[in-house]
Amino acid sequence: MEPKHIDPKQIVADGYDRIAERYCAWASQVRQEERAKYTAMLLDTLPVGAVVLELGCGAGLPTTRQLAERFTVTGVDLSARQVALAQHNVPTASFFQADMTQLDLSPTSFDAVAAFYSLMHVPRCEHLELLRKITVWLRAGGILVATLWPHGNEATFADDWLGAPMYWSGFDSTTSTRLIAEAGLHLLRAEEETIEEFGVPITFQWVIAAKPVPAHEQA
Q1: Is the CB of residue 113 less than 8 Å from the CB of residue 89?
Q2: Mean pLDDT of the residues in the chain
């Protein structure tokens, strides 16, 4: 059991600061089809010029760069080093370093929120409140595309993941989809994707959810 004084978010921030370049190179070789599939969903669904928030943008490659070719993108990451790389790699997007759970953004200001492989680095006790914030930030009809764990995992610590300590957390699929609904979003799709990482099959749950359009705004 980890000592209680260890801050999991600090582990994540420090870890990605240390392995930013290595992670970017590694990520370009794994789960490519999966990432492309859900990036394409955003590219094909949203109109040109849509306003997109990316939570956990990393170094901006390849997802942020692709999104920024069509949309107005704001990327957020806990790692200062990742943000610096993203600013260099995708100069047409806006970036800032922050804890996504502490963001104070304008209501109904985004057409979509993308969170690829990032929510599982957030302590699961904060997931519901973050989902509620995302609902507020989205415009009516706006969509969330996010990666979650399919199995309950209160806290997992690794001493060495790509060269640095790392932390993950999440709920099982049933709980996550319930929280999505409780936060005010309508689940459109939930799919499990399994890919080998370091020779081990790793499964993620991908969810697509939308903020309902009020009846008086429906055509």
Answers
A1: no
A2: 95
